[in-house]
Amino acid sequence: TLTIHNNLCGVGATCGKLLDSAHQPLLLPDGITQLKVAGVNHDVVLPSNFNVFAGNGSQARLDIRANDALFKVDSTSHVTINGVKVQ
Questions:
Q1: Quick one: which of 39, 41, 38, 25 has its CA closest to 67?
Q2: Which of 1, 27, 44, 45 has the least CB density, counted as fewest CB within 10 Å?
Q3: 6-26 pLDDT, tens per residue?
């Protein structure tokens, strides 16, 4: 279970969408709400070899609300996923 509770993408916040390598938004289990990245005014595209829920085969559960951000990017950030720098 991944639980994220913050308000980094609330009213007036600068946030981009988190996209897969086909530039499709990653959605929460409701199939509507998109995962967001705080601190950027553009979308963040994940590398093609990134599997969001790679693991032991058990069903993943996300507890993320609409105004939550998966992570925040700022001037001190360095984001690398599966060995690929995400821009």
A1: 38
A2: 1
A3: 888 889 999 988 888 889 888
